[in-house]
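dumping this here before i forget
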Amino acid sequence: MRYHFTELVDIPKIQKMMDLLYDATGILTAVLDLEGNVLTASGWRSICLDFHRKNNTTNKRCGISDCRINEQLKDSEKYVIYHCENGLMDAATKVFVRGEHVANVYTGQFLFREPDVKFFRQQAKKHGFDEKEYLAALRQVPICNEEKIRSIMEYLCSQAEMLGEMGYKEMETLRSAAELRQTCEDLENTKEVLTATLEELRDQYDELQKKEMVARQHEELWEYAVEGTGLIIYDWNVKNNQLYFTRTFKSLLGFEATEFTGDREKYLQRIHPEDQYRVKEVTEKTLLGKEGFYYNEYRIQNKEGQYIWVQAKGKIVERNQNNQPVRLVGTLTDITKYKE
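structure:
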């Protein structure tokens, strides 16, 4: 039995995961099914959202580009980078579930060189775009080197593998559920009462152990993907003051991430005394909504007792029904060499 990708994954959960990725790293993403339907989109540029996707003609070009990328991906081992019909660059990789190509993960709306303004001015005139606003949106499109894009695509390939694993697990769950329903129907029809034997209970226990192992593997896959980018990501639960770091935290201070996980006060104690008041002040402003984005630079003591400079960025990504902050997610970067 074949399933659509939307039946195999929790799309709102994938959207939230991609939104967190964009908030923490600035990497734009979109997940599309093979029919070109946009399932998730995070951080899309104004030039696409407000112009290309709203105009019938340019939107059709987007559809043509999506179809072409599907064809190119069939012959691609990992990912492709291509020039879309509307003049921008995009890149995509495939999502497989049990060997079947079911969806694509995209990043894009970038350029490799300065844009041909004449081309985009003519495009604005042809499709009735406000030229001034359209060219302003064009200026927001980043100019990237190919090496950076390929690095991002390697990371998104890891993300695609994780989505495929999630889809495979759900497909197995659906298959098991279908088999279970059939078994129940058979039992109802035959009026037989079955008693689970000790061996069957052992099999069920082994199956439960396997599922728990798969769940741990999914968590490890996310950690490995983050390690591939070199990013140090933190997740602070404001409500219970629990702090979580990715394993890449060790490269910053020399401590294992688990030595600080769940203990925010232990982390704060290592901040230089002269910087602690400023850290507290900026944090409070962010929580009170006076700052839309958390940014700070401060000194913190590493495992060897030396102080290093770090740059901390973050954003409140979850609030409760009273609009009170619940979670703040961000990144840490070693900037010592820029301070010396």
